[in-house]
User: Fold these one by one.
Assistant:
Number 1:
Amino acid sequence: MHVLIIGAAGMIGRKLTQRLARDGAINGKAIAELTLTDVIEPTAPNGFAGKVNLDRSDLSNAGIATALIAKRPDVIFNLAAVVSGEAEADFEKGYRINLDGGRMLFEAIRLEHQKDGYCPRLVFCSSLAVFGSPFPKRIGDEFLTAPLTSYGTQKAILELLLADYSRRGFFDGISIRLPTICIRPGKPNAAASGFFSNILREPLVGQEAILPVADTVRHWFASPRSAVQFLVHGASIDLSGLGVRRNLIMPGLSATVAEEIEALRSFAGEKAVALIKRVPDDRIIRIVDGWAEDYEPDLALSLGFRAESSFSEIIRAHVEDELEGKPA
Amino acid sequence: MHVLIIGAAGMIGRKLTQRLARDGAINGKAIAELTLTDVIEPTAPNGFAGKVNLDRSDLSNAGIATALIAKRPDVIFNLAAVVSGEAEADFEKGYRINLDGGRMLFEAIRLEHQKDGYCPRLVFCSSLAVFGSPFPKRIGDEFLTAPLTSYGTQKAILELLLADYSRRGFFDGISIRLPTICIRPGKPNAAASGFFSNILREPLVGQEAILPVADTVRHWFASPRSAVQFLVHGASIDLSGLGVRRNLIMPGLSATVAEEIEALRSFAGEKAVALIKRVPDDRIIRIVDGWAEDYEPDLALSLGFRAESSFSEIIRAHVEDELEGKPA
């Protein structure tokens, strides 16, 4: 089997690559070839016996999608995107990369399909940013997509295209709407949601972190490990019963900042909790106030998608995957 | 004020043109200039004192949208579309006309906006085909768009773009999701929904009509007169309170075929009803079975949109508008 990962150099892309290299198979079928592409050069995984193709290219440039699809990958992961803040700041770039790039991929597959019925599995990394407030208490699978950002709009449009191209039989697609990933590895970044990870990741290694919102803020989380598992599961399961409803809210943990802090206390003690500095930030408070708190991902649950059920699990996943099992 | 109607040669486009010519104004502002465009040559309205520009062009061709927008229309109606059956039969044509054509219009407005803040009102003719079964008993404003056709997908995508472009301030847009138009004037056509109109329109002039489904079939209707009123109202009202929720289910009448027939009986007697021939058609029964029966258009009602409340009103509108008040 040939697997193509577009956006392979990003955080999730690298973890997905490493997971597939380790497994050596998807759903029992051996992976013979792995093509990794991104706008920055992807890294070859460790310990993979098959062929690896590394490609540096921009999906939204003419001919790129056609060349990638000409090699007939059996499974395609599309994780490529300009992030929310950049898509908001640069309207044209966001639409070009997030909408046109994705559509060019879909079109390249359709044109290959027309030759002989080629029909790959396509796993698209979508986002809960397809939703916009006002929200019900819990957002279910039948809630409208009314995004409040251009990024969310671009994701929602690709979801609609994915459903129509799948209905037509051009490919067999699924959209994975990821929860907020926590604990995000790496350094604190400028994303408004960064603090959810910062207040755990930094204290776990003896560093201070800033909490800009109240302890009562509730949000929807899954670990990077779960995010990768969602993508692999999306590539593995039978989708034939879904019809056009292929854009799935992924399971997650609905929890408050206070619950995050309690889990940190249980795992690393009072000393770690003391490293969280409360510095209210009106800008971030306002942004976070517009985010949904809870979801009812019934369809994904019925298909066997699973996330963590406590922040203790999320912390353990981070310590095992990022800190070799040993926090500071 | 300069008004642009794209798709002016279609049934609704012609009626809208005539209505605007008759009113001579939108929301109290005089219409000085009317630009009518379509892929077939539009007809100039009767009795309009202002300037009329007739244009035959395809919005999806390069440069067309730019040229139309360079003339800075204050109000733009976009009614141009390949119909559902054609968009399903010809995938590329449907996406080119219904999606790319509409997006080129939006882009042309955005680029004009960037020069000096130009920000027209844009009224987009959308469709309830953005929804797909399974449905709740009544579809409300927060129900997901999961279209079962490429046509519905194209409309849903333009709706998302319209909301984002409006949020950005490039134009002030509204999508009007029309009910099934009944009584559709003209000759019986091949559309699966044609019988809803045929069984009234034909008997009203002494002609036979075929009813391919059961009397218990329930559906959502508004007259052509109401459809035009929705568009004019959409061009007139303040939309600033809507945020991104600008894609509105229009009010309609939820009624059964039996209620249609009863209204015909009241208006034109048993002789007219006897002209309806019951010829069940499995293909049409199956298609109609996938359509929604009822809606809760709360948002549109709160903005003052109104439709007929009985089939007697719908028949009267037809007799007044199409038969000069005199049925056969």
Number 2:
Amino acid sequence: MTDRREAPFAFEGLDRVLHEKARLGILTSLADYREGLSFGELRDLCGLTDGNLSRHVQILEEAGLIEVTKGFEGRRPHTNCKLTPEGRQRFDDYLAVLEQVLLRARGDAVSGSARPKEGKPA
Amino acid sequence: MTDRREAPFAFEGLDRVLHEKARLGILTSLADYREGLSFGELRDLCGLTDGNLSRHVQILEEAGLIEVTKGFEGRRPHTNCKLTPEGRQRFDDYLAVLEQVLLRARGDAVSGSARPKEGKPA
């Protein structure tokens, strides 16, 4: 068995619930709009179909990351989605790991002029 | 239909081949070791099982992102994996999008003391 504690590139903190591309878009949108966003606004901001957005919203709600409130605006049904406090915290934690990924990868991945490494991992 | 060109949180550049957590670990490792890494080194750095690593290496190879060379070290079979030039370029492009995600999310997601937004998207 591999000992995951010693695997520097395992990126354990990249929780798959948050890391999935569409859900990452939803969470980033909601982080930006603290009072929440309607279903339609989220759909347009994230470029998702109604069906896809529904599916991902349900996953995020079941994970306790977002709160979904159904009501009416006048006679029209209105669904509002917002981050829960736990969701905000977990998203912050996720972003911290993402930043570590970037820092590691940019060690010499991005500059193009980086020195080649000769060494191998111990 | 949603017009994806106007969806600022669609993150089209987060190519799923690169974005998947295990593959992101593999690519980050290989970006760090320009001469490539053996199968066993990659497995340990990324905290993957042999089976999982094989599967992800195959996906990355088929996508043209990495090059896999099989040979021998003495009598022992030795598999070396390294980024292709295209793989390095696409990983760089991916990292640039990841950085945009972080910048957007950190608009007020991480500081904790950020102002609440009242506005809604247009």
